[in-house]
Amino acid sequence: MSIASRDRSRSGKGRKLGSRIAETFERIRAGSRPGLVTYVTAGDPDMTRSADILKALDRAGADVLEVGIPFSEPLADGPVIQRATERALAAGATAAGVLDLVAGVRQEITAPIVLFTYANPVLRMGTEVFADRARAAGVDGVLVLDLPIEEAGGFRDAMAARDIDMIFLLSPTTTDARVGEAAKLARGFLYGISRLGVTGTRDTVADGAEALARRMRAATSLPIALGFGISSPQHVAQIGKFADAAVVGSGLVGVIAEAGRSPDLVERVESYVRWLKSDVDGADDNRRAQAADRST
Predict the structure, then answer these.
(1) What whole-number distance in Å separates Cα of residue 208 and Cα of residue 276?
(2) Is 66 a catalytic residue?
(3) Domain ranges for the chain
(4) C-alpha to C-alpha distance for 172 and 214, rounded to whole angstroms
(5) Phi, psi at 108, each rounded to 5°
(6) 64 beta partners
(7) Which one of the listed residues 66, 157, 165, 244 is annotated catalytic?
(8) Which pTM does this prediction carry?
(9) How far apart, in whole angstroms, are the C-alpha atoms of residue 7 and residue 75?
(10) Among 57, 109, 265, 271, which residue's Cβ finds the most Cβ atoms within 10 Å?
(11) What gap in Å lies between CA 191 and CA 61, rounded to an integer?
(12) Closest Cα partner for 174 from 211, 221, 204, 140?
């Protein structure tokens, strides 16, 4: 049974103006550098260290924090994130525990927090219960990885009624019609990736990033974040030529995996994100060109 069919009642209320995500992207668009969205799997290597990692990401200047809820069948993830999920589940991570984690760090973190989940953990908890707990925890947005756009209206309404942005994931294989539907339902930003199931770092930004960004721009004025194998400041700058923010997932999760439970784990995570946020020649020109494109 789909999430939409389980939601019997909807308030239909829209989001309040001035959400934390909207304010963040307004600041990014007014600045001279692309934003950086960071993804980590909650509970990797454990919940206590995850709390420290989230606070470190915020200190390092990450603009949006994506927090993955571990699921036992992460079929749309690449091998690096799949292994992180396995470690988190082995350490006892649950959806309820992730919500508790977010609630515990929310007052210490400035950046918006987006939950990244599969539909199953939400259905197990119950959509309304999940939405209530997410709001209470201070969650700013939710992305349900395997929720079809055609079935997303009910879930989106449940989130909107609680002032939580619904984020959609798009790829180069997403049809123009589905891009348009996602743009109608989405709030906060749209998230584009190279391809589901093959996430990972690369020496260069994956082919198709700019083409996907242009298709997304044609459908919406919402901010666009792209995750195409980001693993260096140069990649972030390149993405900034045609998108508002770059998303780093596998590269960051790989740093966590390498550090494991070592005493310098948090320091290494913070240093890695500060490095990704470091100045790159030409970034100012790229952002000015992008702003000009949006105004035409």
Answers:
(1) 22
(2) yes
(3) 36-295
(4) 11
(5) -100, 0
(6) 37
(7) 66
(8) 0.88
(9) 25
(10) 57
(11) 19
(12) 211
Instruction: Give the C-alpha separation, 152 to 175, whole Å.
Output: 16
Q: Is 258 a catalytic residue?
A: no
What pairing do the DSSP bridges indicate for beta strands 245-248 and 165-170? unpaired
**E strand map for the chain:** 35-41, 64-68, 113-117, 141-144, 165-170, 190-193, 224-227, 245-248
* CA distances in angstroms from 129 to 95, 120, 121, 158, 257, listed in the order given: 12, 14, 12, 10, 32
Taking only the tens of pLDDT, the chain with its 296 residues reads 445 444 433 333 333 445 999 999 999 999 989 999 999 999 999 999 999 999 999 999 999 999 999 999 877 778 899 999 999 999 999 999 999 999 999 999 999 999 999 999 999 999 999 999 999 999 999 999 999 999 999 999 999 999 999 999 999 999 999 999 999 999 999 999 976 544 444 455 667 889 999 999 999 999 999 997 888 999 999 999 999 999 999 999 999 999 988 999 999 999 999 999 997 654 555 554 555 555 54
Nearest to 209 by CA among 235, 231, 232: 235
Architecture of domain 36-295 in this structure: Alpha-Beta Barrel (3.20)
Cα angle for residues 108, 43, 250 (degrees, 5° grid): 95
Q: Apex CA 246: angle with CA 139 and CA 30, to 5°?
A: 80
What are residue 261's phi and psi, to 5 degrees?
-100, 20
**Residue position matching structure tokens 């918006």:** 112
Task: Please identify which of the residues 77, 165, 181, 270 carries the catalytic annotation.
Answer: 77
Question: How far is the CA of 210 from the CAs of 174, 204, 214, 279, 295, in angstroms?
Answer: 14, 13, 6, 21, 18
